[in-house]
Specification:
Bound molecules: coenzyme A
CATH architecture: 3-Layer(aba) Sandwich
Number of helices: 3
Order of helices and strands: EEHEEEEEHEHEE
Oligomer: single chain
Shape: globular
Low-confidence stretches: none
Strand content: 35-45%
Amino acid sequence: MASNESEFGFYTRKEKANMQPELTEFKKVDDVFAITFIIPTFETVGFCSFRVQSNSIEILVFHIHKEFRKSGYGSQCCKELIEKLKDMYPRLRRVTLYADPMAIGFWEKQGFKIVKYDIDGSAFMKMRLGS
Ligand SMILES: CC(C)(COP(=O)(O)OP(=O)(O)OC[C@H]1O[C@@H](n2cnc3c(N)ncnc32)[C@H](O)[C@@H]1OP(=O)(O)O)[C@@H](O)C(=O)NCCC(=O)NCCS
C-alpha cells in the first residue's frame, strides 16, 4: 500500500474507488423516496432523497460520506440514480435540485444547468432528459 493511501478494512481507498456502487431498495415516506449507495464491502458511501412530481424529479438531499469523496463516487452514484429513475419513470423529462453554493460545480459536471441563483448563493438547477 502506498503511504498516501488510507486503508479501509482489507481494501485500500484506491481499490474501493474502483468498486461500483449499487442502489439499495427505495424507501418511501409520504411523497419522499430515500435510497443509499453501497459498495461490495457493504459500506454505505452515500445517500439521496428525492420527490417525484409528474414527469419531473426533485433531488432533495444528495450526500457522499466524507471518507469516500473525491474518488468519483458522487458522479457514479448520480449517474446510476438517474439511469434507474429513467427506467422506473419512462415519462421522466427533468431532474431538478437546489445546489449548495459549494456543490454547484459538481452538479454542472453531472450535466445540470443553472436556472437561477438564490440570495444565499445556492442555485436552482435542472437537467433535461430525453428529447
Ligand atoms: C458534492 C459531493 C456530492 C461530491 O461528491 P464526490 O464523490 O466528492 O464527487 P466526485 O469525486 O464524483 O467528483 C466528480 C467531479 O466533480 C468535481 N467536484 C466534486 N465536488 C465538487 C465541488 N464541491 N465543486 C466543484 N466540483 C466538484 C470533481 O472534481 C470531479 O471532477 P472531474 O470529473 O473533472 O474529476 C460531495 O462532496 C458531498 O456529498 N458534499 C456534501 C453534501 C453536498 O454538498 N451535497 C450536494 C448538496 S446540493
